[in-house]
Design brief:
Number of helices: 7
Number of domains: 1
Largest sheet: 5 strands, parallel
Strand content: 5-15%
Shape: globular
Structural class: alpha/beta
Number of strands: 5
CATH superfamily: P-loop containing nucleotide triphosphate hydrolases
CATH topology: Rossmann fold
Strand order of the largest sheet: 2-3-1-4-5
CATH class: Alpha Beta
Radius of gyration: 15 Å
């Protein structure tokens, strides 16, 4: 791979960051990290529990601290939490330390992938589909701002998506 050291995956919940990230790491010989899993490992509790006890702002502070640590590492593929890009500092860390890939999916696809998952604190609302559409509207411009590469994840198998990403990364200049 040469010029591309770290690969950071951004996108909304259900975009496939963890699944794609694991396969991408395997195919590139990089080490895979998931920022949400790292937060759970460090705290010993679920993301939902952190949201309940500390609120979203408490979770975001923990997320920023984890991102700061993980972006210091070399030769990694990192699946970020869907809201990691809300913070301007986090966006700067990602841009500065690696190639950022936005895994973009339609609200309909994201809803189909997340609607039965009870471990999504931001979707525990009266109208989770509307909440997902609202998150998309707010975050899509931020994902686009931070992304070096944007890939549409709908209608692709994980294998073909990873192959496509590897092609796109290969075409980037060092």
């Amino acid at each position: 791979m040469g010029a591309v050291d770290n690969i950071y995956l951004v996108g909304l919940m259900g975009a496939g960051k963890t699944t794609v990230g694991k396969m991408l790491a395997k195919q590139t010989g990089k080490i895979f990290y998931d920022s949400d899993h790292e937060i759970k490992r460090r705290t010993g509790v679920s993301i939902s529990h952190i949201f309940e006890v500390e609120g979203e702002s408490g979770f975001r502070a923990r997320e920023s601290a984890v991102l700061e640590d993980l972006t210091r590492l070399k030769n990694v593929v990192l699946a970020t939490g869907g809201g990691a890009i809300i913070s301007k500092e986090n966006r700067g860390l990602l841009k500065e330390h690696g190639t950022v890939i936005y895994l973009r999916a339609s609200v309909g696809d994201l809803w189909a992938r997340t609607r039965h998952d009870k471990n999504r604190p931001l979707l525990q609302t009266e109208d989770p589909h509307a909440r997902l559409a609202e998150l998309f509207a707010v975050r899509d411009p931020l994902y686009r701002e931070v992304a070096d590469i944007i890939v549409d994840t709908s209608k692709q198998s994980v294998g073909s998506l990873v192959s496509h990403i590897l092609q796109l990364i290969g075409k980037r200049k060092p």
